[in-house]
Amino acid sequence: MACQSYSQLVAIKRWADRGLCDVVSRDFDKLSKEDAFIMLRILDHIHAVDRIFQHHLQGVPHVFQAPRSANMPELTALVDGIREADDWYASYVDAMTEHDFEQPVDFVFTSGKPARMRRGEIVLHVCLHGTYHRGNAGALLQLRGLTPSRDAITDFLEDAAA
């Protein structure tokens, strides 16, 4: 996969995450207490996994004991953290060379199992993982009569062309 493709994947992730965060921030008070908790859990899980793998890429330890925060963050802090992590990934990927994406990274999953992934595989995982769970969030919004954000690559390309 060419460097440009990784950069585009991360740009799409950042765009889609921001769209979801904007919709959730706007409509959060329209969710029941239970649905609001589920939404926070979804966003927190996406963000925790992003942070865990950010630390793996940096070769530094993280504080997560599971792929979610020990304490549920408030929505505003979570949205700020998601934006910060997405910006980090965009900057990180844009600075990488083709060779960098092939470099292996050894780490330990939160389950305790040792693992090895190439840097490109980690970036791909973070992007695909976020896509899956944004779909969960979008489905919850739709079930409650709320309009989710646009999340498709074609939507991103359409917005980029405008």
TrEMBL record:
Residues holding a divalent metal cation: H45, H129, H133
Domain of life: Bacteria
GO molecular function: metal ion binding
Keywords of this entry: Metal-binding
Entry keyword annotation includes Transport: no
Gene3D superfamilies, sorted: dinb family like domain
Sequence similarity: Belongs to the DinB family.
Protein name listed in UniProt: Damage-inducible protein DinB
Organism of origin: Paraburkholderia hospita
